[in-house]
Amino acid sequence: MPGRRIEIAPGVALNEDELSFTYILASGPGGQNVNKVATAAQMRFDLRGSPSLPDRVRARAEMLAGSRLSRDGVLVMTARRFRSQERNREDAIERLVELLREASHRQARRIPTRPSFGERQRRLEGKAKRGDIKKNRSFRHED
Questions:
Q1: Among 3, 23, 92, 97, which residue carries the largest CB count within 10 Å?
Q2: Which domain holds residue 50?
Q3: Tell me: the pLDDT tens digits for 57-92?
């Protein structure tokens, strides 16, 4: 049975089978339980080898991942915020989805514009006014 599909953005979805989890001992809240039970979830996702991601999303995600990306192109996320394995697992998936959503967001192209005639006039008037202020600062002797 294939794993569930995780919706990232319109037209971009990830198969949960591409994620692998290991559980490690976590620091933080949990009392004596924290020393006995491996509750922190460490998720691995092969970013470079994923068939689910378009090339542009993959390239941008590699830039955004930073130090979480290994040399092999595997994204490693450790979630240890919560006391249970399941909640930490969901937290790691949410953080991955957030990263991939940011990577899939297409930035709007800037359309270069020119200042209007009125804007140019106001700018020149402001510069002239500023120049007058500076000119009047000098001390002049009137004979």
A1: 92
A2: 5-104
A3: 888 888 888 888 888 888 898 888 888 889 998 999
